[in-house]
Design goal:
Layout (H helix, E strand, L loop, with lengths): L2 H27 L1 E6 L4 E6 L4 E6 L8 H34 L6 H4 L3
Antiparallel strand pairs: 1-2, 2-3
Helix pairs in contact: 1-2
């Protein structure tokens, strides 16, 4: 590998780092929402999979252990669905940003 190739590689790595920083900012600003139990539990999450808000309908607050177990299941389902939506948003953003570099798909996952 000659010096011109090394300079080009260094430039590409710098672009990749800048794109990663932009991606992190974009993911922090991306908000996804999901609910379960017909809207009994509602979760808002950013693209970095940080839960921003968890809302529970007061009607879900039962008094039996079975009610509590159902509520726990609904919370887990809503959080998991929001996570899947955050993953989809991240994947869409990554493919759009990295497509411009012309990098092979196997290398795109490294950045």
């Amino acid at each position: 590998m000659n010096f011109a190739d090394l300079a080009k590689l260094k430039d590409m790595m710098g672009q990749a780092r800048q794109m990663k920083e932009e991606m992190d900012q974009k993911l922090a600003a991306t908000v996804v929402e999901a609910s379960s139990g017909g809207g009994v539990v509602h979760v808002r999450m950013n693209g970095k999979k940080e839960v921003l808000r968890l809302k529970i309908d007061p009607a879900a607050m039962g008094s039996t252990p079975a009610d509590l177990e159902l509520l726990e299941d609904l919370i887990a389902a809503a959080v998991n669905e929001a996570g899947r939506r955050a993953d989809a948003a991240q994947q869409a953003a990554m493919s759009g940003m990295l497509g411009g570099l012309g990098m092979p798909a196997g290398l795109q996952g490294m950045f």
